[in-house]
Design goal:
mainly beta; 7-stranded mixed β-sheet
Amino acid sequence: QVQLVESGGGLVQAGGSLTLSCAASGGDISSYAVGWFRQPPGKEREFVAAIAWTGTSPYYAASVQGRFTISRDNARNTVYLQMNSLKSEDTAVYFCAADEIYYGETHAYDYWGQGTQVTVSS
């Protein structure tokens, strides 16, 4: 069973950048599709980005398209979320999720990390 640990969150000013990492243990991340989700304060968890097993054809929520980039380094067993031009509305707890079969925008992933806080000050 794979375990996921997110890191890289923190406090950043609007317009700044952060890179989140999702490190996997107990399994080979290359066997999993990975998604990033976020949960803003007082709101439901929402889809951010996803990347397939091969690393091709990543896709994004409209709200982050052109600002966020998802990538994977299977040799390091890690998936990244590069976040640029951050806005106050990007403030949320960010989660990564993985699944051997599912690849999509819903919460159907089998494995989830504990989350990392991202706070964007305006």
